[in-house]
UniProtKB/TrEMBL annotation, chain A:
One of its GO terms (molecular function) is phenylacetyl-CoA 1,2-epoxidase activity. One of its GO terms (biological process) is phenylacetate catabolic process. This is Ring-1,2-phenylacetyl-CoA epoxidase subunit PaaC. SUPFAM superfamilies: Ferritin-like.
From TrEMBL, chain B:
Gene3D superfamilies: Phenylacetic acid degradation B. Pfam families: PaaB (PF06243). It comes from the Bacteria. This is Ring-1,2-phenylacetyl-CoA epoxidase subunit PaaB.
From TrEMBL, chain C:
GO terms for biological process: phenylacetate catabolic process. GO terms for cellular component: cytosol. The keyword Translocase does not apply. One of its GO terms (molecular function) is phenylacetyl-CoA 1,2-epoxidase activity. This is Ring-1,2-phenylacetyl-CoA epoxidase subunit PaaA. The lineage of its organism: Bacteria, Pseudomonadati, Bacteroidota, Flavobacteriia, Flavobacteriales. The keyword Transcription does not apply. Keywords: Oxidoreductase. InterPro entries: Aromatic_CoA_ox/epox (IPR052703), Ferritin-like (IPR012347), Ferritin-like_SF (IPR009078), PaaA (IPR011881), PaaA_PaaC (IPR007814). Its EC number is 1.14.13.149.
Length: 250, 100, 318
C-alpha cells in the first residue's frame, strides 16, 4: 500500500518537476523581463510543490533516501510525468500553450485532491491550489493575448495548440497506481473531470479566437515511463551533477 | 485581425502602488511595463510582491498622472510655511489643561 | 537661458546636493548630470539583466532541489533589479526600448565580470560570494546617492541582495567541507574569479576619469582603490574560513596600514574585456539580442490585444 502511494505521488509530482525544469531553462531569455519574472515564479511554485511531494515520498519509503535521490537519481523509464510537460520550449507560443493545457488539468486535479483521505496529500493540494489558480489565470490570459493579438501570434499559437493537442488525452489515463489510490480514497479519479477539462479549454480557445483541434490521434507513454526523445536530454542536464559526482552533498 | 506592423507600439509604463498590510495606505513602489491593466497587475504582483510585501495593488498608467511643476514650488508650497496657526503648538495653554 | 542664469542654477543645484537634498526627475538639473545618470543607471540595469546569463547557465544543472530554487530565486531577483533600475532611468525621459537598443548595439556597457564563463557548479558559489560581495560594496553607498529614483531603487536592491552573497558563500562552504573533488572545484573557481572580482571596482584612482565629479554628485562615496581595498580586507578572512587560498602570492597583511597588500592586477586583461574581447562578450550580447528579437511578436501581440480590448470597451459603452 505504501509503495503504491509513493508511485501515486510520483505520478503527480513528476509533472511539476519536469515542467518546472523546462520553465527554469527560460530564465533570462523571456520576451520581456516582466514575463521572465512571471515564468520563473511559476517554476519556483512547481519546484516547491515537488519538494513537498518528494519529501513525503522519501519519508514513506523504506529506503534511506532524500528528495534529491528521487528527483535526480532515477532512470528515464522511472519518471512517470505526462509527455506534455517534457515538450521543449520551441517558442513562447509553445511555452504558454503547454502551460495552459497543463494548468487547466492541474487545477482540477488539485481541487479534487484536497479531499484526499491522506492528510499530507490533502494539505499539499490545499497549499498548491492557490499557486495553480494563479498559473491558470496567467496562462489563459496569455492564450487570449496571443490568440487574439496579431495575425502572426494567432498563427504561431494555433500551431502550438495543434502540435500539443495530441498530448492532452494522456492526462486522463489511469495507471495501476492511480486505480489503487482511487480505491483507497487517497487518489483522484481524473476521468471524472475529463469532460469539464475539454469544455474549459475549448471555451478559452474560443475566446482567444483559436480553433479547437478535432484530431482523434493521441500520444501516450509518459505515465508508463516511455517518453519522447526530448526527455533524455532534459534528464542529462538535470542529473548531470548527481551523476558526475555520485554520493556528494551540495 | 488587422496587422499593423508599421506603427509599432511599445508597452506603456505603469506606476505601481502597494498596500503592505491592511490599515496602511497604498505606497508608490515603482514602475513597470505592461500592455494593459490586467497585465500590469500580474506583473506588479510578480515584480514587487515576491517577498510577501503586499495585500493590495493599484496600477495606473504613468501618462495619466499629472504632476506639479517643481518650478512652481515657491508659489505652491511656500505660502503654507508661515501659516503656523494651522498647527496645535501655535496655541498657548497652561500645562494644567489635560487631554487637549 | 543665459550662461549666467545657468551658472546660477548650477550653483543652487550643487548646494542642494551638498545639503544632502535629493534631486527628483522633474527638478532642474545640469545636462551633464542627466546624461551621467542615464549612463550609469542604465549600465547598472544592463549588468543585472546580462548578469542573469552566467548564473542562469546552471539553473537546469543545479545539483539539488534546494540549490535549484535558491538559484532560480536569485536570478529572478536580478531581473527584478534590472527592472527597478530601468524604471529609475526612464524617469529621466529615456525609454526602455532606447536603453535596450543601446545595449544591443554595443553602445552601452555592462559590468565586464559577466563576460567570464561559468564552467563548474562552484562558479555559482564564487559568483555569489565574490561578485555579489563586490557589488554590495559598490552599491550600498548608492542608497544615499543624490538622484531620488536611483537611491530608492538601490535601497530595494540592497535589501533583496543580502541573501545572494550568503547563498554563494554557503555553496563554497559546503564544497570546501566536501570531498577532495569538491574542494578542488571550489579552489579552482576562486582562482578564476578572484582577479576579475577585483577588476569590478574599476581602474586605479590615478586612471579613473569620473571620480571627482561622481563624488560631488554622490554617485560615489569612496574611490575605486578604497573600495577595492575594503573588499580585499573583508574577503581574505572569509577565504581562510573556507580553507581556500587566494591566488595572489603578493597578498600579505600590512600591520602599519592595517590592510592587506596585494599584487598587480592584469590591466591589459581588464581593458581587453571592457573593449569587448572577453571570453563571452559576443555570446552574452547575442543571447540578449535573441531574447529581445524572438520576443518581438509576443510583445506586439499583447499590445494589439490590449488595443482591441480597449476599442471593444468603448463600443460597449456607446
Amino acid at each position: 500500500m505504501k509503495d503504491n502511494l509513493i508511485q501515486y505521488i510520483l505520478g503527480i509530482a513528476d509533472n511539476s518537476l519536469i515542467l518546472g525544469q523546462r520553465l527554469g531553462e527560460l530564465t533570462g531569455h523571456g520576451p520581456a523581463p516582466e514575463i521572465d519574472i512571471a515564468i520563473t515564479n511559476i517554476s519556483l511554485d512547481l519546484f516547491g510543490q515537488v519538494r513537498s511531494y518528494f519529501q513525503y515520498a522519501a519519508q514513506l519509503s523504506d529506503k534511506d533516501i532524500t528528495e534529491d535521490d528521487i528527483a535526480f537519481l532515477r532512470t528515464e523509464r522511472e519518471y512517470v510525468n505526462v509527455l506534455l510537460v517534457e515538450q521543449p520550449n520551441t517558442d513562447f507560443g509553445y511555452v504558454i500553450t503547454r502551460q495552459f493545457l497543463f494548468d487547466q488539468f492541474h487545477y482540477l486535479l488539485l481541487s479534487a485532491l484536497q479531499q484526499s483521505t491522506d492528510a499530507t496529500m490533502a494539505a499539499i493540494a490545499k497549499k498548491s491550489i492557490k499557486e495553480v489558480s494563479y498559473h491558470k489565470r496567467f496562462s489563459a490570459d496569455w492564450m487570449k493575448r496571443l490568440g487574439d493579438g496579431t495575425k502572426e501570434s494567432n498563427q504561431r499559437v494555433q500551431q502550438a495548440v495543434n502540435d500539443l493537442w495530441g498530448y492532452t488525452n494522456e492526462l486522463f489515463m489511469l495507471t495501476d497506481a492511480d486505480k489503487q489510490a482511487i480505491a483507497e480514497g487517497i487518489g483522484v479519479d481524473v476521468t471524472l473531470f475529463k469532460k469539464e477539462y475539454y469544455e474549459n479549454v475549448a471555451a478559452i480557445l474560443e475566446e482567444a479566437t483559436l480553433e479547437v483541434p478535432t484530431q482523434a490521434f493521441f500520444q501516450k507513454g509518459g505515465k508508463e515511463g516511455v517518453h519522447t526523445e526530448h526527455m533524455g536530454y532534459l534528464l542529462a542536464d538535470m542529473q548531470y551533477m548527481q551523476r558526475t559526482y555520485p554520493g556528494m552533498k551540495w | 485581425m488587422s496587422d499593423k506592423k508599421e506603427q509599432k507600439k511599445n508597452w506603456p509604463l505603469w506606476e505601481v502602488f502597494v498596500r503592505s498590510k491592511n490599515g496602511l495606505e497604498h505606497r508608490h513602489f515603482g514602475s513597470l511595463h505592461a500592455a494593459d491593466a490586467a497585465m500590469a497587475l500580474e506583473n506588479a504582483r510578480d515584480v514587487y510582491t515576491r517577498r510577501n510585501e503586499g495585500v493590495s495593488i493599484w496600477v495606473v498608467e504613468s501618462k495619466h498622472i499629472t504632476a506639479s511643476n517643481p518650478e512652481h514650488n515657491g508659489e505652491l508650497f511656500e505660502p503654507a510655511n508661515d501659516k503656523v496657526y494651522r498647527h496645535p503648538t501655535f496655541y498657548d495653554l497652561p500645562d494644567e489643561v489635560k487631554h487637549m | 537661458m543665459s550662461e549666467k542664469e545657468i551658472k546660477n542654477l548650477e550653483e543652487i543645484f550643487d548646494q542642494k546636493i551638498a545639503r544632502d537634498e535629493k534631486i527628483e526627475p522633474k527638478d532642474w538639473m545640469p545636462e551633464k548630470y542627466r546624461q551621467t545618470h542615464i549612463r550609469q543607471m542604465s549600465q547598472h540595469a544592463h549588468s543585472e539583466i546580462v548578469g542573469m546569463l552566467p548564473e542562469g547557465n546552471w539553473i537546469s544543472r543545479a545539483p539539488s532541489l534546494r540549490r535549484k530554487v535558491a538559484l532560480l530565486a536569485k536570478v529572478q531577483d536580478e531581473a527584478g533589479h534590472g527592472l527597478y533600475l530601468y524604471s529609475a532611468t526612464e524617469t529621466l525621459g529615456v525609454s526602455r526600448e532606447e536603453l535596450y537598443e543601446q545595449l544591443h548595439s554595443g553602445k552601452a556597457k555592462y559590468s565586464s565580470i559577466f563576460n567570464y564563463p561559468t564552467v563548474t557548479w562552484a562558479d555559482i558559489g564564487a559568483i555569489g560570494w565574490l561578485v555579489d560581495g563586490a557589488a554590495i560594496i559598490n552599491q550600498v553607498p548608492l542608497c544615499n546617492t543624490s538622484f531620488g529614483p536611483y537611491a530608492r531603487a538601490m535601497v530595494r536592491v540592497c535589501k533583496e541582495e543580502s541573501f545572494h552573497q550568503r547563498q554563494g558563500y554557503e555553496i563554497m562552504l559546503t564544497l570546501s567541507k566536501g570531498t577532495k573533488a569538491q574542494k578542488e572545484m571550489a579552489q579552482d573557481a576562486l582562482n578564476r574569479w578572484w582577479w576579475p572580482s577585483l577588476m569590478m571596482f574599476g581602474p586605479t584612482d590615478d586612471k579613473s576619469t569620473h571620480t571627482a565629479q561622481s563624488m560631488k554628485w554622490k554617485l560615489k562615496r569612496k574611490t575605486n582603490d578604497e573600495l577595492r581595498q575594503q573588499f580585499i580586507d573583508q574577503t581574505v578572512p572569509q577565504a581562510e574560513i573556507l580553507g581556500l587560498s587566494i591566488p595572489d602570492k603578493d597578498l600579505k597583511w600590512n600591520e602599519e596600514r592595517k590592510s592587506y597588500d596585494f599584487g598587480e592586477i592584469n590591466w591589459d586583461e581588464f581593458w581587453q574585456v571592457v573593449k569587448g574581447h572577453g571570453p563571452c562578450n559576443r555570446e552574452r550580447l547575442q543571447t540578449r539580442v535573441n531574447a529581445w528579437e524572438n520576443g518581438a511578436w509576443v510583445r506586439d501581440a499583447a499590445m494589439a490585444y490590449a488595443e482591441k480590448n480597449a476599442e471593444r470597451k468603448i463600443k460597449k459603452a456607446v
